[in-house]
Design goal:
It is a single chain. By secondary structure, the chain is α+β, with helices and mostly antiparallel strands. Helix content is about 20%, strand content about 40%. The chain has nine helices and 30 strands. Strand 7 (about 125-130) and strand 8 form a beta hairpin. It starts with a helix and ends with a helix.
Length: about 550
């Protein structure tokens, strides 16, 4: 019984000893190099166990193995015994375990780790962190996109761990975070030494459409295109080039965003300070067209001083054309200063004011009554427009087309492009209107025909046509019409058929209408007037004398 107990105790002690002395698989153990042969190091890990490790596992990245017989090293025990009866060990795995322990502490403390980029993979690069391999995304290599990562390969440098998962073996690092932190410190230092209004030297690093970025010694400032020069700058490349050293003024510093605004023109005198003295109102100057828009053209008077010639001030005669058809970019023109607003930095210019008003010139050279000749440019419902010299037009109203025809009828005789002659009847310079008359150059047959004739006159006319409503008559070539009701005082004699073509008839003029060129004629009015005159001269019907007696006496008196 006692012997049995002693044996059991011995076995328990032996098992306990074996558990304590035999290293656990999957752990890191210490060993000693006892030999180096065939590119491998033979390592005694104790416990009467030896294993082999390729020398390359002892080499640093890109270097050679630094190991000698007798060196103590740590290795990872995969298996206590392999097929050859040797321990299966690995230096790489030992380093990886060691590295993971170290990296987890760095990740927890948010401290930097040292590593070297050694390969390129999809989306980024691989980094050796001293035994553990991490992924460096392409976007985390630098603060700006890197076109060539060659100079960074194999270079030991600090990295920041962004994410790590030991179970999956994933580590993501960033080089950019280190650079940004360093850059932020540098920016803060540089910005701390800058002040608004200070003049500094900088190097142009980049040029965009809206400006240029200037390196002030570790911090970039934006030089906007509008702050490069007082004159108009279409693109920064007109006056700057990458790598050029420039002198700039610090305009504004944003302490929160660390953004710096720079200016070059602020180091030069502002030409607007002397604009009012240099360009008095009404003065004429030469300028260069810099830009053309739908509403006008910008003209540079000097570097930094531009004025606008509004489309309405470009030409006396071209009212509805695009400014680009009157002037062209870079063209030199004479302009007149019309208005200056120094506060808004605006100058209003006039192009047409440097040339004489063509309506004034026309009025001087073509007084009223002057005969002109021109081409019919347009025909409207109220008249003709005739082209005159200096690109101006004159208008012939319907009423001024013909003496004998209605305007609506007379205008049918004209076509666009016809050459006509007319007389100037009026020139309105303010309204830019010229009135012409075609009929004024011809004889006024109506006026000649009715010369001396006035309302109440008795004239003799010739019957030219018999109509149902009256008779048509002629007086000195002018046609008139006597209505049926005006053919006689007596209704029984108001019959057109009692007249014959060619009859001579005395009539009384009731109206002279120069506008309609018509005479109002009446036989009835003549008879009534004659009766009234006879009664007044030879007696009244109230005295007992008959109308026949009175008229007879009147006729007798006429014969005597």
């Amino acid at each position: 019984m006692c012997a049995k107990a002693t044996m059991e105790e011995f076995e328990a002690l032996l098992a306990e000893s074996l558990e304590i002395d035999t290293p656990q698989e999957g752990s890191v153990v210490k060993g000693r190099v006892i030999a180096i042969e065939a590119g491998q190091a033979i390592i005694d890990v104790g416990y009467k166990m030896e294993g082999r490790v390729d020398l390359k596992e002892f080499a640093d990245l890109g270097g050679s193995a630094d190991i000698s017989v007798g060196d103590e090293v740590e290795v990872y025990l995969d298996r206590v015994e392999n097929a050859r009866g040797e321990a299966q060990i690995s230096r790489d795995k030992a380093k990886r375990e060691e590295a993971w322990d170290r990296l987890e502490k760095a990740y927890a403390n948010e401290t930097r780790v040292e590593g070297a980029i050694f390969g390129r993979v999809k989306g980024g690069f691989t980094v050796d962190l001293g035994g553990a391999v991490a992924f460096l995304p392409g976007s985390q290599v630098d603060v700006r996109p890197v076109r060539d990562a060659g100079p960074l390969m194999g270079l030991k440098q600090p990295f920041q761990i962004l994410k790590m998962d030991r179970r999956r073996g994933n580590i993501v690092v960033s080089r950019r975070a280190i650079l940004e932190e360093s850059r932020a410190e540098q920016r803060a230092e540089v910005i701390g030494n800058l002040s608004e209004g200070q003049t500094v030297d900088g190097v142009v690093k980049n040029i965009t459409e809206y400006g240029a970025f200037v390196d002030l010694g570790g911090v970039d400032g934006l030089l906007h295109v509008t702050d490069m020069a007082w004159r108009r700058v279409n693109h920064p490349s007109e006056i700057l080039s990458i790598g050029e050293t420039v002198k700039v003024q610090v305009i504004k510093i944003n302490k929160e965003t660390h953004r710096i605004s720079l200016g070059m023109k602020q180091l030069q005198s502002d030409p607007w300070d002397s604009v009012e003295n240099s360009y008095p109102l009404g003065s004429v100057h030469k300028g260069r067209v810099t830009n053309i828009t739908d509403y006008g053209a910008f003209v540079e008077l000097e570097a930094g001083v531009e004025g606008l010639v509004h489309v309405s001030e470009m030409s006396w005669t071209k009212k509805n054309v695009h400014p680009g058809k009157i002037v062209s970019t870079s063209q030199e023109v004479d302009v007149m200063v019309l208005e200056i607003d120094s506060a808004k930095r605006r100058v209003s210019l006039g192009l047409k004011q440097t040339m004489r008003n063509p309506w004034e010139v026309f009025a001087e050279t073509h007084p009223v009554g002057t005969a002109i000749e021109g081409e019919v440019k347009n025909i409207t419902e109220f008249g003709l427009f005739v082209g005159l010299e200096n690109d101006i037009d004159g208008m012939v109203h319907l009423s001024d087309l013909s003496w004998d025809q209605r305007g609506e009828d007379a205008i049918q005789n004209y076509r666009k492009g016809d050459t006509v002659q007319a007389a100037v009847t009026e020139v309105d310079i303010e309204k830019e209107r010229i009135s012409l008359s075609i009929k004024a150059l011809g004889d006024d047959t109506f006026t000649d025909a009715v010369d001396g004739v006035k309302r109440g006159s008795i004239i003799t006319v010739a019957v030219t046509a018999i109509e149902e409503g009256g008779v048509e008559v002629d007086y000195n070539g002018m046609k008139s019409f006597i209505r049926r009701s005006d053919l006689s005082r007596d209704r029984a004699d108001q019959r057109p058929e009692r007249f014959q073509v060619g009859d001579k008839v005395d009539v009384r003029v009731t109206n002279v209408d120069s506008k309609t060129r018509r005479l109002g004629l009446s036989i009835k009015a003549r008879e009534i007037a004659e009766e009234k005159e006879a009664v007044e001269q030879y007696g009244s019907s109230d005295s007992g004398a008959s109308l026949g007696d009175i008229l007879g006496a009147a006729l007798k008196g006429d014969r005597n």
